[in-house]
Design brief:
single chain; 208 residues; alpha+beta; nine-stranded mixed sheet; two-stranded parallel ribbon; 26% strand
Length: 208
C-alpha cells in the first residue's frame, strides 16, 4: 500500500489556527497525545482483547534526531480508521471558527473539536504515525504529514498492537527534548491518568 492525498478540511485550512491561535499553551500537545493513548488502551479493554501487551504509555526522546515519540499499547488503527480519524478535520469555516471561539481558552477549543492529535503541529515540523489494529487480519499502517494538508500513507512495519506518534520538533521547540520539561508536563496534566506513563525506564505519573 502506498497512498498520497490531501487532508480533508472543509472550506479553509485549519493549520494556521492550530499553530498560531493555540500557540500560547503549546505544551498541551503532550497531554493530548498521552490522553489519546489512554483512550485507546481503555477501548481495547472494552472490546475484551486480551492478547496485547500490558497497558502503558511510553515517551521516548532522541536529541540527535530532534524527535519525541509517544507510544501506547491500545487498540491501534486500520488504514480505513486512519483515513477517517486523522485525514478528515471538519470545519465549516476557519474565520467562522475563530470568531465563534475568540474568547474560549486554547484547551477548550482543542477539546471542542477533537483536535488533540493536531495540536502536535504546534511544536512539530513532521508528524509520523505507526499503528497496528487489534482486529483480526489487520496490517500495520504508516502515516506522515509535514504540517501542510498533504499526507502520505503506506504499509507499516509495526509488529505489536498499538500506536506510536513521533514528532520531529521545530527549531523553536527544543525544550521538549529536556527530561525535566517532559516530567513537568506529565506532572501538570497527566499525573492521575490510570495508565503508567514510562519515561527513561521509570513510571513518572502517580496514577491514583
Amino acid at each position: 500500500m502506498h497512498e498520497q492525498g490531501t487532508i480533508s478540511i472543509h472550506t479553509e485550512n485549519i493549520f494556521p489556527i492550530i499553530k498560531k491561535a493555540l500557540y500560547s499553551e503549546r505544551d498541551i500537545f503532550l497531554r493530548e497525545l498521552i490522553s489519546n493513548g489512554v483512550d485507546a488502551i481503555s477501548k481495547l479493554k472494552m472490546v475484551g482483547y486480551t492478547k496485547g501487551a500490558a497497558p502503558e504509555i511510553k515517551i521516548t526522546i532522541d536529541r540527535d534526531k530532534r524527535t519525541l515519540s509517544v507510544s501506547d499499547t491500545g487498540l491501534g488503527m486500520t488504514a480505513e480508521e486512519v483515513k477517517r480519524y486523522i485525514n478528515q478535520v471538519a470545519f465549516s469555516s476557519a474565520s467562522e471558527f475563530a470568531q465563534k471561539y475568540a474568547n474560549t481558552s486554547e484547551q477548550q477549543i482543542i477539546g471542542a473539536f477533537g483536535l488533540g492529535f493536531y495540536s502536535a503541529f504546534m511544536v512539530a515540523e513532521l508528524v509520523e504515525i505507526d499503528t497496528l489494529s487489534y482486529q483480526e487480519g489487520a496490517t500495520p499502517v504508516y502515516w506522515r504529514c509535514d504540517g501542510s494538508t498533504q499526507f502520505t500513507m503506506a504499509d507499516g512495519t509495526r509488529s505489536t498492537v498499538g500506536t506510536t506518534v513521533t514528532l520531529t520538533l521545530q527549531e523553536d521547540a527544543q525544550e521538549f527534548l529536556e527530561v525535566g520539561e517532559i516530567k513537568r508536563i506529565v506532572k501538570r496534566y497527566c499525573d492521575f491518568l490510570p495508565v503508567p506513563i514510562i519515561f527513561n525506564n521509570e513510571v513518572i505519573n502517580r496514577q491514583k
